[in-house]
Structures are given as C-alpha cells and as structure tokens.
Amino acid sequence: MSDSAPLLLRHHRPFLAFWLARVFTASGFQMLTVAIGWQLYQLTGNVLDLGLVGLVEFAPRVLFMLHTGHVADRYDRRRVAALCQSLQALIALALVLGSATDNVSRELIFCLAFLLGAARSFEMPATQALLPNVVPPGLFPRAVAASASATQAATIVAPAVGGLLYALGSIWVYGPTVALYVIACGLTLSLDARQQVQQRGRATLESLLAGIRFIRSRPDILGAISLDLFAVLLGGATALLPVFAKDILLTGPWGLGLLRSAPAVGALLMSVWLARFPFERKVGRTMFTAVGVFGVATIAFGLSTSFWFSLAVLVVLGAADMISMVIRSAFVQLETPDEMRGRVSAVNGLFIGASNQLGEFESGITAHWFGTVPAVVLGGVGTLVVTGVWIKLFPSLANRDQLHSQPVAEAPAASAAPIKG
C-alpha cells in the first residue's frame, strides 16, 4: 500500500485538477499578501497597521461563519469555490488599476482586505469539504498531505517571486495574480466530484449551528482545533516579518519574500514525506510534540539577528506546523459525515483564521506595546504553555493512537442528492 498509494494519487485525474487549483490559488494569495504588506508599511510606516489588516481580513470569517458552511453543504462545492476565486481575481484587478493610477491608499487596502477575507471565508469550507468527494477514503490521509504540499510549494515560490517583482513595481505583482485566480477557477469547475447535497431550503438556526454541536460532541476534534487556535495565535510571527526584514535583519523586499517562503519550505518537505509515509500510530502524541517544536522555533526566531539562521528556524517551524495540520485535518474530515462536512469545515476554518489573521493582529498589538522581539518571544512561550495545558484538558487526544476510530456515517438518502461532474 505504501508503494502504490502515491502512484494512485498521481494518476487520479480529479485529484490532479484539485491539486493544481490549490497551487494557483495559494500562489495568488501569497503574492497578494507580500505585496499588500510591503505596500501598506511603505504607505504608513506603522507596525500596528500590519496587525490591523490581518484583523480586517479575519472579520468576515466571524461574520459569515455559520452561513459559509451552510452554503458548502447546500450547493455544489465546486461552483462555490470557483465563485470565490473569481472574486479574488477581481480584488487583484482592483489593485492593478489602483497601482497604475497611483490611487492605492490605506483605506483601499483595508476595504479590499475585507473582501478578500470574505471570499476566502466561503472558499475554505467548500474546498476542504470537497476533497473527500474527489478521492476515495483509502487515499484520503495521503491526499491531505499531498494537497498541503501543493499549497506549500506555491507558498515557497510565490512570496519570493512576489518580493522580486515588487522591486519592479507593485503592478508587476498584482497583475499575474489575476491570471492565477482565473486559472484556478477553471480547474475547480472541471473537477469530477461526487457530493451528497442536502435539499435546499431556508437556513434555520438549527441547521446553521449543527457544525458547532457536532464539534462539541467530539472532544478529540474540539481539542485539536482549539489547540491550533491558541498555540498558533500566540506563536504566529508572520505579520511582523516586514519589520524583521527591514529593521532587524536589515534586508529588503527580496529578503521578506524569502522569510515568508521559509516556513513553506519546511512544510513542503514534511508534506511530501507524509504523503509517502503518513502517521498511522500515536498520532496524538505526535501532534502535541509538533506544536511544542513550533513554540521553541518561534522563540529562536524572535531572538535571532542572523538572516540565514532565521530562515533555518522558520523551516523547522513550518515542518512542525505541517505535522499538526495534516493530523488534525485528516481525522476531522474522516470522522465527519459528508452532509456535515461544510459546516464542520466552516468552524474549523474559523479556528484556522483566528490562529492566522487574528494572530497577526495579536502580534501587531503586542509589538506595539512591548517591542517586536519581546512580542515574538512571549508568543513562543505562550505556545508552550498552551501545549502543556491542552495535554491535561484533553487526555484522550494526547493518547489518541489512530486517525480514524470508526466508520463515517453516510448522508441520508432521503435528504441527499448526488452531484457528479
């Protein structure tokens, strides 16, 4: 099985289309992130704005959380994801026009960041819930790792390319992202997927809250996604990378691009390994160990004044984060019925968004209060504290042996209709 499974994934056409769509979407988002962060810091010179833009992008995930999962379960997930990718292409186009006419302002960046967050808040649960419809259950753990490798491969290349292109002008970054999102949209629509869609009807409070109730009934799932929320929220330092690149490590846009790519290098290497050799035993202990390594790497990065050492530490940080992400994503999807996956993915997406975008806001605030280096070091210490506390709060998760403990219930035939591309 270990020799044949990767081969099957490589020859599974729907998964290849899904994989390529992830590459182009991730590339577009990472290039946008690098350009927006650098341009905003050039415009205002205020480190607090780097945190605020993360908060603005995160806000739609809170506002629309219940509806994003409902949409992913009630409508064709391919079309939902493609529509979101089209909106992101329009956002990039607006930045092209704004840069060409020298009309990019702080206010425009914040408005577009909100729209970007809204598009991604609907895209994430649809895309996460779509993968089990694309590949058979036996290949799913490897498909999660391989899918993550697509995102990380793009995350390695795109920020570095974005940083280099930004030296020629912001329009040289925003322009290509339009094409990337358009290609991703076409690939998503071409997917051959089988989905159990509930009968469309008016959204009720009961149906909207079903994902939250399901997660609360599964302590392992609740513990895993909340661990990611608090550990990465405290330990995240990506929002402060422009400050490290410019003021501490004394490099420019190209250096910022490399710093943003470094975690993805570690994540890519680890995801390729996990696609070949997935964790099958002692997954709980492995996940907690990975989160602890993430915290230690965060502390080391905060204390570093060497550009190359900082890159190496960020590689380790990315590899540790990938282990935690693959374990969490695989068992959440495997233990969730298909008709519930959109709503559960929406809640999971909120936790992921909180650990990333809200973590960027937390980093900006603490850096504003205490300074950049103390903010990162304290965040890494906080991650280690959270890891220890969660081991005590969720002992069954810490002692979990395998990813999938029981068969996933199928969608009821009376209330579901298959979608086949």
TrEMBL record:
InterPro entries according to UniProt: MFS_trans_sf, TM_effector
Matches recorded under CDD domains: MFS_MefA_like
Coiled coil feature spans: none
Gene Ontology CC entries for this record: plasma membrane
Keywords per UniProt: Cell membrane, Membrane, Transmembrane, Transmembrane helix, Transport
Membrane topology recorded in Swiss-Prot or TrEMBL: Multi-pass membrane protein
UniProt keyword Transmembrane helix, yes or no: yes
Source superkingdom: Bacteria
The keyword Transcription regulation appears for this protein: no
Record protein name field: Enterobactin exporter EntS
Provenance organism: Pseudomonas fluorescens
Gene responsible for this protein: entS
